Amino acid sequence: MNVMLWMPGTCRGCAEARTAAIGHDLLSRRRPMSLLFRILLQFSGLLAMVCFFIPASRAAEQAVTAGLVPSAGYVRQRIEDSASVLDLRKAERLALEQNLDLQAEVFTSQAAEALVRKGYGIYDPNLEIFLAEGERRDLSNFQFFVGPTGLDTRDFNLSLTRVFSPGTEVSLFYNNRRQNLFTEPKPAINPEYDTELGFSLTQPLLKNFGRTVTEQTILYAIKDREVSIEELRRVALDLLMEVRSTYFNVLRARDDLAYRTTSVKLARTILEENRARVAAGVLPPVEVLEAEVGVQSRERDRLDAERAYHDVLDQLALLLNRPTIPRVAEDRLGQPEVETDEARAFRTALKKRPELQALLRQSEKLEIERDINHNQTLPALDLQASYSHKGVGQNYNESVDFMPRSDLRNWQIGLNFSYPLGNRAAREELNRTRLKLKSQHAAIGQLQARLRNEIRQAIRLLDVSRAKIAAATTERRLAEEKLRILVGRKNVGLGTTRDLLEGEEDLARARTDQIAALADYNIALSGYYRATGELLEKEGIRLQRSEGGLTDQPFTMD
């Protein structure tokens, strides 16, 4: 059995030469290669060659295909249906499509758009129809006449009223009345049909004048919709950040579980080897006890790693709103480089962070409210005008025909002025709005300072993560070299089981630390783009709106 020791960063020829030298040294002693030595040597080469998340060389790929990597059951199972494999891009897409928190925010934004459409209802003409029929009876008591009096009436009125943007209210009306008088002597026309066609106009000149006051409900709804859109972007941004962090933690936990499983298998192999040697009288019985403790300790660590892996898988399934645990692709954690510039990142955050944009939209809404409240402090001065033409007849057709030929015209024009003395309600409402606007400006300034602080923290975390990766890589190489030496010492009888188990544990811990450092770096990189507000853009995610507003799936991916 040929096992080649290979470490990332060394050429394949050097690795082959090193392996050949070790083999020649062992053969020169003319000692048969024991089962324990073969297992330990295989494991040391395995930890160096198998890099699930660091780009591997062709030799490492050959080692994987040769079966040197344990499958670890469900962790490394072969997935025949590639469409069911969940990679990072698919996880992001599923989260944007199926996450319930995001869907709830989409419906909230759609409700805000409905309020905008509702606001334009102020320009809808109002049609009013009035139908009534009645009778009135009384008793007349005059000096020369005592008797019953009364009349019956029948009314049909039609009016159409509409508001225009300057605040103008125009009403067209068409009134009809039939009146039958019971009193003696009866009038010449009885029953009498009265018809009236006309219009009325009311135009505010000071208070309530202007498009802003007229459309205040529309303007408020538009700003609320913009705030809702920014809140939707914030929820999507936080969701994407959480999905990416959870996905990287899944890769970290899966790798840790795989190495813990392999460590348990190695410890059991060492236990079996020690039992055989103790039975042969080569080793003292304490070596078996140490091997048993090593198996139990590593089994405990494996159970903890398995629990952590399933916990983070459940968390990912919850974010994707999936009833089953997703099968995660065999992705490798890389170290993408990014140039950080605090000044540029802060300028970008001022434009793209949804929290800040939401506060700015709320500030704009308060400015509109301030202007409207200032208008309400003015006195009410309304121009009022009306004109109508009437017709009278013994029946309906006669009264209608009489209208254009008669001089029964009615008109009126005038001004209506009103002003509450003191006007404290309007003045204090304006003062309240101004104070709220100052409070909003202070909140915006505080948020801007917090954004700058978040960017600085994200940059520092990236720098620290880079340093951790470098340190963990060096530590792993040292642990690999130490384990190789311990394997040789154990094979020639100079090392103990405890030393070998400790060396194997050091290598597993170093490898886990390296994967953890890579995961932390990728999470920190996502956090940096989250701090600048660019995470959606970097992932090719856009918020699309149609003419009818937001759809149920407003986010698209490139």
Describe the overall structure:
By secondary structure, this protein is an alpha+beta fold. It has a domain at 1-69. The protein has 14 helices and ten strands. Strands 2-3-4-5-7-8 form a six-stranded antiparallel sheet. Strands 1-6 form a two-stranded parallel ribbon. Strands 9-10 form a two-stranded antiparallel ribbon. Strand 3 (146-163) and strand 4 (169-181) form a beta hairpin. The model is unreliable at 1-83 (pLDDT under 50).
Can you give keywords for this protein?
single chain, 558 residues, alpha+beta, six-stranded antiparallel β-sheet, two-stranded parallel ribbon, 14 helices, 58% helix, elongated
Please give the share of residues in helix.
Answer: 55-70%
Quick one: how many beta strands? 10
Helix segment tally: 14
* Most strands sheet: 6 strands, antiparallel
Unreliable stretches covering 5 or more consecutive residues:
1-83
Mean pLDDT: 82
Form type: elongated
Rg of Cα set: 43 Å
Proportion of strand residues: 15-25%
Strand line-up in the sheet with most strands = 2-3-4-5-7-8
**Straight-line distance between termini:** 49 Å
In oligomeric terms, what are we looking at?
Answer: single chain
Secondary-structure-derived class? alpha+beta
Taken in chain order, the helices and strands follow as HHHEHHEEEEHHHEHHEHEHHHEE
Summarize the structure.
InterPro entries: OMP_efflux (IPR003423), TolC-like (IPR051906). The chain has 558 residues and is of the alpha+beta class.
